[in-house]
Target: Shikimate dehydrogenase (NADP(+))
Amino acid sequence: MRKKFAVIGHPIEHSRSPELHHAFAAKMGIELDYQKRLAAQDGFDASIDAFFADQGQGLNVTVPFKEQAFARCDVVTERAKIAQAVNTLWYQDGLLHGDNTDGQGLVAAITALAWPLHNARVLILGAGGATRGVIYPLFQAGVAQICIANRTYARALHLQQDILQHYPDLALDISEIAALSGHYDLVINATSASLSGAALQLPAALRFDYAYEMAYGKDSDFLALARQRQVPASDGFSMLVGQAIEAFEIWHGCRPELQDFLDASPHNP
Ligand code: ATR
Model:
């Protein structure tokens, strides 16, 4: 019987994870079955219990269950602990293990683009779960400084205080988006503005060399602004592939090459 994997979320129909994991498996000569799994909003625990009881080997977790998955784990990685969210689950020695591969997926994506990360000054827009998940891996990749800028200042302050409580030495600044100015090497849009279609306004005084949009599959104000300023930009498809590769390696012990799976994403300028 083929080993069983799945991605669980609500909604789940849009997920590209089965397609990616099947493509990785074909490339690496591994046989597996990877399905989408819709859980009811209040049915996450029951759904993962049923999956693992039925010989499931590994689960990816997506919106809105990543925090619940974190809470359910017996063992989590350091990066998952800082993210307070888990997107990859598996059992080992009778214990439920969890990791968060989103941040490393972003680092792999930016590295594949050959954009500089080492000693970079990075600006992250937004202070929600998407931002929380990538801070630690970015510092691990050697960035010099991260500024979290949020529409609501208090939320950025809360995130900064929470992270500095555990890692007081990190160069982690905060700002209100409207007050931004100066120059950053890289700007990452981790707001949900692109997903909801809401406008994202950035001050004219803000300058940057590279622009990474975490959302994928549609054009956004952020990508349009990067085009207008003639700044190299990417949407988040490469991060999606990157996080999937990290999960694949956890489960199978081998990793496909990111570059082999970056099919043309239509909104990359
Ligand atoms: P996620 O888990 O995907 O990060 P979230 O926790 O709902 O989602 O956080 C969404 C983030 O996008 C927040 O930082 C939010 O800013 P506020 O804290 O001020 O609400 C930000 N956001 C959403 N729409 C935005 C917009 N139109 N302009 C600027 N920021 C926006």
In short: Residues 19 and 247 are 14 Å apart (CA to CA). The pocket of 2'-monophosphoadenosine-5'-diphosphate is lined by residues 126-131, 150-152, 155, 177, 190-193, 198-200 (CB under 6 Å).
